[in-house]
Design a protein that fits this description.
The chain is an alpha+beta fold. Helices cover about 35% and strands about 15% of the residues.
Length: about 190
């Protein structure tokens, strides 16, 4: 069982590299990552997520890579896997809009990213992609919305990245202080 301070260290040390190696991810590791993510709580236990995961060398990998913006395409094409997290907009039972579908899928991705990191695998999520291209290229049903595209693999050599991207490659990005976002009883009154 993971101790509280071990979990805190895991969260503190997690990061999203842009340099990936081609070292294999086993089926057991992949199952462990996605099984961890599926444990998160969701509104009415809807579990609105679906994932498309493609491996480098497959035709679908090229299609997903071309859904990325120019900046992300420069580095993400070295990752052994690309994926897209999709989320269902409506509840199954009554088809009413689920106002929490993106939140629930984001929670899945947060837990899956930590589980991956614990195994020495990195998930780098990206907002820089075209939802329309994803919908068109993969015939995604209208009921689902692409939430995040991600690169997945083991860390590679930073020196192999293009110069402009090397500068952004850092394991330690700054975080806001608690007083900047945790308030007590009224807005802007630090906890």
């Amino acid at each position: 069982m993971m101790m509280e301070n071990e979990f805190e260290e895991l969260v503190k040390n997690r990061w999203s590299p842009r340099a990936f190696s081609d070292k294999e991810i086993t089926k057991d590791e992949m199952s462990s990552i996605f099984n961890a993510g599926k444990q998160v709580a969701t509104s009415y236990n809807e579990q609105p997520w679906k994932f498309l995961l493609v491996q480098k060398g497959e035709e679908s990998y090229k299609k997903l890579l071309h859904c990325l913006d120019d900046f992300n395409r420069k580095w993400a094409g070295e990752a052994p896997y690309l994926g897209i997290a999709l989320s269902k907009r409506n509840f199954d039972g009554n088809l009413k809009e689920n106002p929490h579908y993106t939140y629930d899928t984001g929670a899945f991705m947060a837990v899956a990213s930590l589980a991956a990191f614990d195994l020495g695998i990195f998930i780098h999520q990206m907002a820089g992609f075209s939802e329309q291209k994803v919908q068109e290229q993969f015939a995604i049903p209208e009921r689902y919305r692409p939430i995040t595209l991600f690169a997945m693999g083991r860390h590679g050599k930073t020196e192999d990245l293009p110069e402009e991207i090397k500068k952004k490659e850092s394991a330690h990005s700054s975080r806001k202080k608690l007083q900047e976002f945790l308030f007590r009883d009224q807005w802007d009154n630090p906890f």
